[in-house]
Each structure stands twice: as structure tokens, then as C-alpha cells.
Amino acid sequence: MSQSAPSPARPAxxxxxxxxxxxxxxxxxxAALAEFAEHGFSGARVDAIAARAAINKRMxxxxxxxxxxxxxxxxxxxxxxxxxxxxxxxxxxLPPEEAMRVLVRYNARFHAEHPAFLALLNDENRQRARNLxxxxxxxxxxxxxxxxxxxxxxxxxxxxxxxxxVDPMQLYISIAGLSYFYxxxxxxLSAIFGRDLGAPGExxxxxxxxxxxxxxxxxxxxxxxxxxxx
Amino acid sequence: MSQSAPSPARPAxxxxxxxxxxxxxxxxxxAALAEFAEHGFSGARVDAIAARAAINKRMxxxxxxxxxxxxxxxxxxxxxxxxxxxxxxxxxxLPPEEAMRVLVRYNARFHAEHPAFLALLNDENRQRARNLxxxxxxxxxxxxxxxxxxxxxxxxxxxxxxxxxVDPMQLYISIAGLSYFYxxxxxxLSAIFGRDLGAPGExxxxxxxxxxxxxxxxxxxxxxxxxxxx
Amino acid sequence: MSQSAPSPARPAxxxxxxxxxxxxxxxxxxAALAEFAEHGFSGARVDAIAARAAINKRMxxxxxxxxxxxxxxxxxxxxxxxxxxxxxxxxxxLPPEEAMRVLVRYNARFHAEHPAFLALLNDENRQRARNLxxxxxxxxxxxxxxxxxxxxxxxxxxxxxxxxxVDPMQLYISIAGLSYFYxxxxxxLSAIFGRDLGAPGExxxxxxxxxxxxxxxxxxxxxxxxxxxx
Amino acid sequence: MSQSAPSPARPAxxxxxxxxxxxxxxxxxxAALAEFAEHGFSGARVDAIAARAAINKRMxxxxxxxxxxxxxxxxxxxxxxxxxxxxxxxxxxLPPEEAMRVLVRYNARFHAEHPAFLALLNDENRQRARNLxxxxxxxxxxxxxxxxxxxxxxxxxxxxxxxxxVDPMQLYISIAGLSYFYxxxxxxLSAIFGRDLGAPGExxxxxxxxxxxxxxxxxxxxxxxxxxxx
DNA sequence: TATGAATGAGCCTTCATTCAT
DNA sequence: AATGAATGAAGGCTCATTCAT
Lengths: 230, 230, 230, 230
What we know:
The structure is a homotetramer. In chain A, 67% of the residues lie in helices and 0% in strands. By secondary structure, chain A is mainly alpha-helical. The first copy, chain A, has two domains: 17-65, Arc Repressor Mutant, subunit A (Orthogonal Bundle), CATH 1.10.10.60; 74-218, Tetracycline Repressor, domain 2 (Orthogonal Bundle). Chain A is globular and about 65 Å long. Chains in contact: A-B, C-D. Chain D binds a DNA duplex through residues 3, 12, 20-21, 24, 45-47, 55-59, 61-62, 66-67.
């Protein structure tokens, strides 16, 4: 049909705004993310990725290089997505306490909604970040985040809402860890505690708990009259 | 037969108190833990495990069955070790705040000192706890822990030291997550933040931070005069 | 079309005296010779040839057919070049001994300067001359050569310079073999004898040796007063 | 049957004097030589080698390592065979002229009877002796040969049979080259000259020619009365 | 004429597992 | 109890060749 209608606007492809190669590359990365998350790096099968992406295996290699390059590309893309979401929160425009709550909830939900990302990160850590260390794109994403958090803490402390002397990096790691662990280890935890921690209700409970922990921790010693509410 | 005849007279083995098969089995599990942690389940090589254990590959199969059974055996052993350590803390004999501190620090150190355990758990979660769910040994280990924590929280609340309405399981997951994430993701975090988070000094800083977060969170709203000290 | 219109006015091409297709074809053959010589027929990559020739792979197929046709084209061209050089020596105009020396030296230098030709021939022989046998162009090149050599031998014998009963073909094969083997097997010989036989000085020594062998052999039994000089 | 007759002399194998692994290894090398000679290194198929050797592909890798190691093993074995034959000629016990004739004929026949060796050498040279250079076993085989030839030349010169100032290495390369080229390039030469140079009769003619060339060349200037006979 | 994308078969290598002793 | 040899099925990657434009 696109042959009989040679409108130059539509590049003969379904994917909107992407030419054929770019669309194929995107399909490949999606497929790879899924496969890697399900089976880990070693367990993932390039054939399976090609099949998922509905692309010829040879083209996959033409587009991405090899399994390792594919891994790194996926990793970078997913890091970028997470950071871009954080950036879009515009935390600096919110009052400190609300900003903190928003950040915590964003993290919790991102982790809950992107189990593949967690799986990927875990395997990358098993390899001692061998691939990520080679990337020049990820590290620069994180200094703005730390700056934002530092600013938040300063503002909160100035307003008497937050305790002082909190290291932004440690705090960020705590925020992330509180929901990361719950999501990443959801299956073993469920098995251990005999409870389905992946159920929607349970996720919400956890999210609230994480908010409570973070804000509870940040309370200044003198804030007897303030309790974090929902 | 060697089980029914624990005669200490036969010193054909180096391992003290273990008969030959038991020693071999132990060597196999050690080797498997290391190999699995380094390469993940799929990446681990049965040949490599046999070589590490200095045992014939055929014997390995005779002792453990196959790769999957090996995985589960390793997993159970490591869970048991961790829980046994927690049990030995005898938290119920300590005052609530100190008990909490001890529990948090134990967790932090266990995670720091057993990276292989974390790697194993991550891969098990990637498989949706397929193997762990089959285990009948691990789940029973954890109800006593939750009971202990619940008791701790009750006592702390009664003494006006802890806030009320804290879910023991959520708290335990938080305690674990705060140090788990830091240790498990140490390499990617180091890459991202351009800082070696595995350095001994950094580990201690983290440990203190985790203690602060947990106890800071647990402070009751009215505890204006209490600040967690080192 | 560019053949029927050899207007020198259209300078759209760098190659002088060649229209576009012919220039492309020449580039392809050069590229193929190099690639085939380096990697052998099976090891040569069509992609690499196209890249070396700076031409689209599809065009390569349009111009030459396929890998095998390409091989034959290269082979024929290189045979033709060698024979053309021999023809241009105009041996029949020289006195027999000098003519022989010139022929021997030409051969030696051609082999030394065209290692790719040797590599090609070797691989063609491995295939039992499968391709060359299909060629109708090469065989006719060689009868004039044999005639020339036969004439040389006759003249030399008549003048009492050469021994009699020498088969021109055997002699030609000997002349070729004496330098071919040295050049073609230069690397293994160098390894075996622990000496770099490819060094310029060594090549000259070899060339002189080959002249000595051929002329020494051709001496008639009664030629006590003649010694081949440099 | 070997089970019911546990005679320790027969190692349950058909191959005489070889245990199972050694026999398998020998079969592999034979198969590899044939395959490499027919198809070159790149064209040779490991599957085909395994099939020819009637061995499981996996075992082939267990025995030899990989394709390259296989190549080198074959190369070394064939070099050793050739040199061992030369050594067994016991040239130093023969009068110089006869010794030379024997050496030349041995070379010619070895080349004629081992086309696979030639094919192997050609491909090794295409790779610039990449593998052979790594071998520590081949080079030492050749110094005794050169010493023998040098001794031959000395004795011949002393007896007034050979010319002086002949470099043993150059002479050896000439001897080899005269028959190597004929054999190695037999198929292209046959195609070019329209004659089957591989026919038994033709081989004998060539052999005689090579003897004539070598001994003809070696004649001293004053040896008017000596002509090399058959 | 010229080109980027596509393809199916095949290659080297490795794996978890079992046989035969 | 213990071992070296064996195996069939993949797995990552590449190739010569052709399609669609």
C-alpha cells in the first residue's frame, strides 16, 4: 500500500518518526532488554533476541556489533531513561519535603515498573561493572542529580525540616536501595515470607513504608511536631 | 557406612570431623558458590566447578545430581549460614535500641563479606525464585526472625523509644535493602559516582549511615531529646 | 555506451584512458588480487574486496559475477601480465647466452615482485587448476614462449655454447621453479634457516645463484674454457 | 572380547602399539592433513576433519586444542617425516656424486608422493609462516642437513668433481625448488602446456631432468670429460 | 548506475551430561 | 569410589549472495 501511495512523508514504515534502521535498532534493544532480563547475559541467546526483534540475526550484528555491545547499549538506554525521568520531576521547583516524597515515589515506581532494569544491573554488577565502566555516557548523568539532592537538603535544613549533615550520595543510595531490594528480590522474599510481595496492594504498602523511612530519618531532632503524613 | 561409623581413627582425610564423602560435598559446594557468584547460573561451568573442587566431574554428578540441584544446595547452605548468624546474635537478650543497632550492623557486614551470596540471590530472583520455592528448608528459618523483630519493636515502643505501627517484615526488608543494594550494586554505583565504594573506609561510612537511617526512622514523634549516636 | 563514445572530453574519472566501468573493474581486480593473495580463496572476503575497491558490493557482483569468476579474472590478468613482460624481452634478438640470462633474471624478479601472483597460483593448484582449466586465454600465451626458448637452445647449441637435448618445457619449469620456490616459500625457509631470505641483499644473491645454476647446467660437456660470470 | 581376555599386552584397540588416545590423535592428524591439503586452512572444515577421523568433534578439540593448533601439529609432523627420511639416507657414507644424486631423487620423490605437504607449506607461506615461526621443533632439524650438504660439497670439490664456492643453503633450496615447483604447480603447468605432467612417465622424466640440472651445474669448469649419467 | 538492507546456511567452538572401565 | 573418553545439541558469529529502491 505504501508502494502505491508514494507520499514522501511516510517512510514506508509503521514506526512513527523513525526510519527503517532506527526502528530496527529500537526493536533490537527492546528485545535484548527482555531477553537479558529473563536469562542474564550468559543465558541470553542472540538467536532469541533476533527472533523477538523479528529481525535477521545477521542484521542484528550489523546494527549492534556483538552480544557485549548489545548489552552495553541496552544498559545505557535504560540508565538514560531512568535519569531522564528523574530530571523531568523538576525537583528544584518543589518545596523540600514534597520534593523528597516525589523523588522517593518516583524511584519506587521506576523500580517496580522496570524489573528488567534491575535484572540487568544485577548482572552488570556480577561482572564488576565491566561494561558500564567503559561507558562515557552514564556517569555525567548523575552529577546533576546529586547537585539537586544537595540543594534539596540545604533548603530543607534551612527551613528546619531536615536534619543536617546528610551526605547526598548516601541518601540517594538509601532511597534507591529501599525500593530496589524489595523489587529486585521480590521473588525470594515472597518465598521466604510466604507472601506475594508483587501484588499491587503490597507494592503500595511498600512505597508508603519507604517514604516513611526516608522522611522519618530526615526529621530533625527538634521536629517533635512534625510527622510525615501520606 | 562412614556415617554409621564415625570412628575418628581413620585419618585418611584432611578435613577434621568430616568423612570423605562429606568433605568432598563441602568442597563441591564451596567451589560451586564461587563459580556461580562469578559467572551466574548460565555462565558457570560444571567443568570449572569440578576443577575448583579438585574432584572428578563424574563424582560431582554422583554427589549432587546436576547443575540445578547444585545451585539449590548452595543457595540453602548460604541462607542457613546467614540466618544462623542472626540467631546467634541473641537479640532478645539486648535492650531494644542496642538490639536494633546490632541487627543492622550484622546485616551490613554479612552483605559486605559475602558478595557471593548476593550474586546468588540476584540470579535466583532473575529466575523468579524457581529453585528456592522448591526448598522446604529456607522458609521456616525466617518466622523466628520476624517474631524476634516484632518483639523488639514492641519492647521499644513500650519504652517510648520506637514509633508504633511498624511492620516487622517491612522493617527487615528495609534493613536488608539499605546495605544489600550498596554492596550488590557497589560496582555500578562506584562507576556512576566516580568513587570506590568498596574501600574499607567507605564501607564503614555506609554502615553508620544505615544505622542512622534505621534508628532515625524508628524515633517516635515525641523523641525530641534523643538522637542516635554512633 | 561509454565504449562507443570515447570522447576524452568527459573527465569525470581519475583513471586516465579508462571509462568509468573499466576503471571500476580494474579497481576490483586489484583489490581482489590483494585480498586473495593475503587470505587465499576461501579466506578472502567479498566484503573486503568491495571495501578495498571502494565499490558497492552489489556492483561488484554486477561487474564480475561471483567470487569464482572474480578469481579467474584475476588469475588471467596476472598470467597475461607475466607473459607480456616475457614477450617484451624480445629474447630472439639477443645472443643465446645473454638471452638466457635475461630470461632467468626476468623470472626471478617477477616472482620476487609479485608475491600475490605466487599465492594465487598456489591456491589455484590446490584446487587442481579447476578455474584455469576453464580459461581459454592462458594456454595460447605459452606456445610462443616455448618456441622462443627452443629457438634459443638451438642457436646456443649451434654456437657450441649450450648442451644438446634439452627439453624447452623442462628448462622453463626449472628456470621458474628455481626462483618461484625461493620466493613462494620465503617465509618458511627463513624460519627454517634462521635467516631473512626476503632481505634485498639476499634476493640478489639468490638471483645470481639461479643464473649460475641454469647456465652452469647448460654448459656443454666440452666447454672447459667457459665459466658463467656475473 | 578384550574384556573377557584381559591380556595386558593388547590395549583393547586395533591400532598396534598405540593406546586409544594416541591412536585417535594419529587419526586426527591424518584426517587434518588431507582436509587442509584439499581445502587450505580457511577452506578446511573442522567437522569434515572429525568425520574423516571418525571421532567426535568435541574430542578433537580435547585432543588438539583448536583449528590452528591442529594446523601446526600437522605441519610439524610432516616436516619431521621429510627430514627423518633425509637423515635415513645416510648421505655421508656415500661418495659425493652419488650422494647428491640420491638426495635429489629423494627430494623429487618426496614431493611427488606428498602433495598434501606441498599444499600445506604453500598455505603456511601465505600466512607468512605465522605458525611455523612459533614452532621450536622444526628449525633444529635443518642444521644437520646443511652440515651434511656442506660436507658433501667439500668432499666433491676435493675430489675434483664439484665446482667450488657453492652455498649449501642455496643449493638445497635449488634442489628442493626444482622438484617442488613441478609438483606443487603441476596442475596449472599441465593446463598451460596442455600435457599431463602428473603421469608416472612424466614424473620420471622430470626427476632425471632435475638430476641433470643439479649435477650439470655442480660440474667444475675443468670437468670436460665428465657428464652426469643416469 | 548505484546502494543499504536483508537472508539462510554454515563455521568454530563449547556445554551439560553419560558411558565404559 | 573413582576416572578418562565420549556425545549430541547448541551458541555466537560470519559468509556469499540477493532484494528493493
